Amino acid sequence: MAKGEKPASLAEDHLDFLDDLRSSGVTNMYSASIYLESEFGLERKEAGAILIYWMGSFEERGCPKGKGRWRFGKPETKLSISKGRKGNG
Fold it and tell me: How far is Cα 43 from Cα 9, in angstroms, rounded to an integer?
């Protein structure tokens, strides 16, 4: 898929969700794919493609402010911890 190309799995809810997420100020939008993964059960690559499309189409869609359909907190994530890494103290 070319950069900014509309992903086959894209739904209008994905765009609305990202508009609401941006308006909430909860996260930097470069980190928004993890929220897509959590909310919609998407794979990382798929969520990334949707986010890239959203970013590329933002101005074209009139810079929407969001509809307030979602409430945001910290997404549930699977964090990986590097083995052998030492902490500070």
Answer: 11
